[in-house]
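Form 7-S
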Amino acid sequence: MAVVGDLNSGHLLGVLCDHITEPITIVSPLTPTHVIFKTDASIADRGFNISYSLDPCGGILRGPYHIINFETTTEAHCIWLLEFEEGQQIELSGMNMGNFASGGTCGQQGSSFVRIRNGGTPTSPVLWTSCGGQTLATTKSMSNRVGITAHFIGGTSNQRQSFRMQVRAVQAGCGGTLHGLIGNITSPANESEGNKYRNGVECSWDIEAQPGYRVQFNFFGRFDIESTLGCTNDFIQV
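Output:
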């Protein structure tokens, strides 16, 4: 069985088969969402039973600027898929999380939480997760796609939970959050100036890894940065 958000664009949300005993939840930001069941001419089995529900939130947002603002007094599970133009990054800022209900481990179904993924698939690396105890500093994605999940459990009577943030397109140039085991970081080139780096640029890359890993930097090839006493003008800082 395949769950496809959009037959035209090919947004595949999941493919399921075999014997599954644990509950599985798939949430789609797309309407309509298509469920496709296909069999061949060989082995048959007992089949499946799924239920669905609709939440008044989520969807696909395309740039260049949006304010995501949602509040609820009941349970809700919202997913926003940000898909901006190729060559752009997405800047997330102005996070505000109000009166989140708690009832279990942060990031699990028993608590209210917000999770941001550095990409547009359900398995993209997690950029940030919070259950209301912290807010997100201004952050940039590493591509033109970001997934945002806001899960709200039912709180006390008339407890109003809310989530608000701003997203905007920025031209891809430098900076962002990296999750890969290997990668390259290069200075942003200015083609009109012979591929030299621009003046007045400040880039910040955050490299995130699981506990037990160390980060090693290898400087290779050309390294040409303005020379000043104490590296006070142009510099790299680790």
